[in-house]
């Protein structure tokens, strides 16, 4: 297959960006999208040009590093698929493919397709953990977990922190990400001790970053490569309200409770 790529090139955070056109030739339908970019980069390097910068690590849909907008859709045309899991068989010979970084105020572009997603890390640091007494591992069956809670928690835990939900949201909201992280701990017995305080702290941190508010467009759920449900956002909102009641004065103040 031969494709025409229109790739966002931006040398640095403060530089002006623009689309550059590249020909991707002899592309195998079996190549992954990132392998196709690797081949284009080899051609650019051979010509003495700067390769296209893009993030990636695991290349198997688990690290969350690789997201880009492909023809205006976060992670491209395949539902439930991260960019690294997308294959060129999803495109046709002669296609034009527009490739851009995540577009969101909270994710400033660092270079080309690479954005700074550290705002998500700060939400996790605000409460995405449990406090436990360390020691030898306890017997696995000593803490029974209802099957439904285990399943819902596992679904939420599949969030890879890619940020597609933010990029797809017209408001640039990080609610699906934050709700997934709050849900996966809040549904388990080990996460109960800090459940409501955790929700308050993480939502307050989310609001302190440059994310927008959730108005239930639902685009996040459609873009999510792990198909995480917006039901988690209802759980986050409920836990947040309780967290504001049981939380510290500082959390109440940040949450607008005076
Ligand atoms: S909720 Fe889905 S889209 Fe958002 S960061 Fe997690 S995996 Fe990515
Ligand atoms: S490179 Fe790890 S999820 Fe895509």
Q: What is the element layout, followed by pairings?
A:
Elements: E1 3-9, E2 18-24, H1 33-46, E3 69-70, E4 73-74, E5 96-100, E6 109-111, E7 114-115, H2 118-125, H3 147-157, H4 164-168, H5 175-186, H6 195-208, H7 219-223, H8 231-246, H9 249-254
Parallel strand pairs: 1-5
Antiparallel strand pairs: 1-2, 3-4, 3-5, 6-7
Helix pairs in contact: 2-6, 3-5, 5-6, 5-8, 6-8
This protein binds iron/sulfur cluster and FE2/S2 (inorganic) cluster.
Termini distance?
Answer: 61 Å
The total of beta strands comes to 7
CA-based gyration radius: 20 Å
Q: Which stretches of 5+ consecutive residues score pLDDT under 50? A: 254-258
Instruction: List the ligand species.
Output: iron/sulfur cluster, FE2/S2 (inorganic) cluster
Cα shape? elongated
Task: Summarize model confidence as the mean pLDDT.
Answer: 94
Return the string of H and E elements.
EEHEEEEEHHHHHHHH
Helix/strand-derived class? alpha+beta
Helix content: 25-40%
What is the makeup of the main sheet? 5 strands, mixed
Fraction in beta strands: 5-15%
Counting DSSP H or I runs of 4 or more residues, the number of helices is 9
Order of strands side by side in the largest beta sheet?
2-1-5-3-4
């Amino acid at each position: 297959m031969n494709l025409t790529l229109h790739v966002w090139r931006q040398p640095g955070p403060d530089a002006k960006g623009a689309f550059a056109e590249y020909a991707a030739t002899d592309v195998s339908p079996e190549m992954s999208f990132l392998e196709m970019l690797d081949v284009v980069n080899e051609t650019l390097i051979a010509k003495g040009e700067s390769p296209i910068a893009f993030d990636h690590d695991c290349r198997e849909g688990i690290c969350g590093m690789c997201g880009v907008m492909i023809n205006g859709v976060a992670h491209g045309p395949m539902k439930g698929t991260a960019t690294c899991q997308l294959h060129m068989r999803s495109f046709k010979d002669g296609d034009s493919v527009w490739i851009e970084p995540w577009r969101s105020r909270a994710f400033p572009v660092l270079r080309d397709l690479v954005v700074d997603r550290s705002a998500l890390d700060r939400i996790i640091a605000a409460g995405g953990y449990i406090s436990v007494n360390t020691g030898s591992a306890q017997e696995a069956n000593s803490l029974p977990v209802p099957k439904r809670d285990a399943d819902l928690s596992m679904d939420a835990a599949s969030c890879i922190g890619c940020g597609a939900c933010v990029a797809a949201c017209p408001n640039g909201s990080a609610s699906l990400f934050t709700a997934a992280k709050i849900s996966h701990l809040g549904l388990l017995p080990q996460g109960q001790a800090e459940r409501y305080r955790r929700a308050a702290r993480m939502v307050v941190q989310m609001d302190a970053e440059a994310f927008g508010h959730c108005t239930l467009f639902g685009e996040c759920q459609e873009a999510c490569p792990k198909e995480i449900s917006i039901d988690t956002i209802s759980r986050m909102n409920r836990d947040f309200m309780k967290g504001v009641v049981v939380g510290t004065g500082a959390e109440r103040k940040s949450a607008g409770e005076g």
